[in-house]
Amino acid sequence: MGGLAEAQVVDAVDAVVRRDVPLAQALIVRDLRLDTLQSEVEQRALDLIERHRPVDVDLRRAISTLKLAMNLERCGDLARNIAKRSLVLSSGEPLLPLTGAIERMGRLVAARLREVLDAYAAGDVEPALDVWRRDGEVDEHYESLFRELLAFMTAHPGAVETGAHLLFVAKNLERIGDHATNIAEILHFQMTGRELIGERPKVSLPQLEGLKS
Predict the structure, then answer these.
(1) Torsion-angle region of residue 106: left (phi > 0), alpha (psi -120 to 50) or beta?
(2) Which of 47, 104, 129, 199 is the most buried (most CB within 10 A)?
(3) Is there a domain that residue 213 lies in?
(4) What whole-number distance in Å separates Cα of residue 184 and Cα of residue 192?
């Protein structure tokens, strides 16, 4: 599921940047596989809990698996939403100059997702914690891009529709970043038995003044 979700995110961004209709259409169909896998994972985890009544580490692993599957499936849904936006963008006005900022944000979010999945595969909580600590970086990109898109649309009224679609793309990427951070928290609980204490590192609005993506 992790590999499929990561690929969905990367391909969704590529579909937007390259205006690649076949890629977007294939991605939308592929998302059904993630839905199926989530159902399979959930059923197996629930069966394990019912039949074996696990405790301690095994129970944490089963519960964490349920949460992980849900977050990965949601990443796939958000990537599918981006792909649907790309289909609209491909038939409209030429893309805005800020498409490059969308691509950079997409690469950052995909990297965060890959890092937490690698941490899961390695059974190493520290890389997951590193993703958690850098949650604010995705927010920086989103807030900066949001403001630049609004400024561009104000200066170019004819680009409002295209800009609005890109705003939705950026928001979906920001939410995927949140899911990567969720996964980091889930892994920390699974591996240590403790919840992460404190709020996620965030960037305040005054800190974002003057930022450029």
Answers:
(1) alpha
(2) 129
(3) no
(4) 12
CA 16, 212, 201, 199 torsion-angle sign: negative
The tens digit of pLDDT for each residue in 73-117 reads 999 999 999 999 999 988 777 777 888 899 999 999 999 999 999
Smallest Cα–Cα separation from 73: which of 4, 164, 15? 4
User: Of 68, 67, 109, 70, which Cα lies nearest the Cα of 213?
Assistant: 109
Token reading at 74: 């949601």
The parent domain of residue 23 ranges over 2-208
Q: Which element (helix H / strand E) includes 133? A: helix 125-133
| Cα–Cα distance, 114 to 140 (Å, whole number) | 20
Determine contact, residues 48/3, Cβ cutoff 8 Å.
Answer: no
Assigned domain for 120 exists = yes
CATH of residue 110's domain is 1.20.58.220
Rounded Cα gap, residues 52 and 29, in angstroms: 36
Rounded to the nearest angstrom, the gap between the alpha carbon of residue 21 and the centroid of all alpha carbons in its chain is: 21
